[in-house]
Amino acid sequence: MSSTLYINAKVWQPDGSYTESFGVNNGHFDFSGSNAEAATLKDKYPKITDLKGKLVLPGLIDGHLHLVNGGVMMKRLDCSRIDSVAELKSAIEAYVSNNKVNWVIGGNLDLNKVFENHDTTRGNIIDDIFSELPLYITNYDYHSAICNSKALALAGIDVNETNLPKDEIEISSAGKLTGFAAERVMYRVYDTIPPPSLKEKCDAVYECIKMLHSYGITSVGDITLPGDIDVYLELYRQDKLNIRINSYIPFDEFENLQYHLDRTTEIDKDHYSIVGFKAFWDGALGSETALFSQNYKRRKHNGYTTEIVRSGRIYELAEKIDAAGKQMIIHAIGDKAVSEVLELYAGLPNTNRLRHRIEHAQHIQPADIDKFGEYGVIASVQPLHLKYDARTVFEKLPARLIPHTHNYYHITKAGGIMNFGTDFPIVEADPFENIRLAVTRDTKYGEFTPEHKIPLHECLKAYCINNAYASHNENAVGSITNGKVADFVIMDEDIFEMDEESLNEVTIFETHLGGNLEYKNKLSF
Length: 525
Known about the structure:
Blueprint: E1 4-7, E2 10-12, E3 18-19, E4 21-25, E5 28-33, H1 35-39, E6 47-50, E7 55-58, E8 60-65, H2 67-73, E9 77-78, H3 85-98, E10 104-109, H4 111-114, E11 135-139, E12 144-147, H5 149-154, E13 169-171, E14 177-182, H6 183-190, H7 198-214, E15 217-223, H8 228-237, E16 244-250, H9 257-263, E17 272-280, H10 307-310, H11 313-323, E18 327-332, H12 335-346, H13 351-354, E19 357-360, H14 369-375, E20 378-381, H15 386-396, H16 409-413, E21 417-420, H17 431-440, E22 442-443, E23 446-447, H18 456-463, H19 465-470, E24 488-491, E25 508-513, E26 516-520
Parallel strand pairs: 1-6, 2-7, 8-15, 9-10, 10-11, 15-16, 16-17, 17-18, 18-19, 19-20, 20-21
Antiparallel strand pairs: 1-4, 2-3, 4-5, 7-24, 11-12, 12-14, 13-14, 22-23, 24-25, 25-26
Helix pairs in contact: 2-7, 7-8, 17-18
């Protein structure tokens, strides 16, 4: 790793200013300033690189994704472009023909669109699409799924089961399972699927990391399952864990924290660190399991809380986690769920200091906006979900709630902190499509609630310094500042000079992690 001085750049800073030059030495920034200042330092650096006016950003941070699951799902059937049953059937047939599989596993299917007004009068309608192998394909929000009869049978799910949660599986008017499942029922099917080997997971995650580098992403906030840690250990031993992972493990693993810390001591903390605990308060909008203050359209319910909430265990664990000085992040999508999590945090003594977060915060009651700043709660949000929600809210929610959809920008006006993620693989990991949707609110269904648009500079803060702050890491990453690790991205285009509608067409020239070149666009010159 050579010492390099970069000159004639446009280096974005979180305060809205720009510098012109920066130096990298021993994996860290050791200078950031003007070209005139850089001219006096040239003898210190064996290598000088003229960036010829290119825009330079800090390494981008995806504050919320599922790295192992995302890597694995990249190898499975992607249904994100499927709009009809006929297209789904064709895609499944092609997938089975081109892959040696014992299950058909897929994701990112828009169930509401593909199966709108589906038959609910007979048995499993998914069998009509494919019945040769067990099939499990999730909705884009991963809170509901379609399962054919073979998959349900392997999971031991029967309509006559005494303890079957009837609100989480669709039963036809003939008293038979239609193939649509949600939440606990769908996870019973998922748990039946033979898991990929450790090698398969490692190979998939390594490819996923390379994809993230091509987007300029150098750090992630990872929603980590205990088994995922085996993958990170193995990749580190192979010198392939070339990304920074801020890991959030399930609430229920709090009692096992020391075990997980002990087994990861060999990993460089600059590349993997357990920083907190994750829990679900409610479900998701598209699957009608997010918890709202009003009933869903044409439904006699307003969503659900999860078992950990219904049992009261989340309160017990939250108190222990807060007392132990650990951060917690809680998934809450519906406006009622957001309100309830805010009040949980308000009752904990260390919320402000520990920077507890609400993940998604997709629907916020206006009366709750100021509470984020007042309590010191961070809103960890994903504007990319607008690609679905801009249509789904009109199908699912009463009119009064629609204006409160993805309205988190107003938190920052009230002194709160907002950080960006994608929730990949629920949506793509592309940070610039995420930013485009935040800036323009322009979806394929038209411009959606433009009053909630977020300025480009604020979006970059949410991807850089705010994400660093949201994982207690702002002294190490998030800006091109002396002493911080040299994670940076050189852009091919200046996003501040582009048409906002074209932000998702931007390309990365180079991505550097700790001063090392991890990605170079071969098409750039």
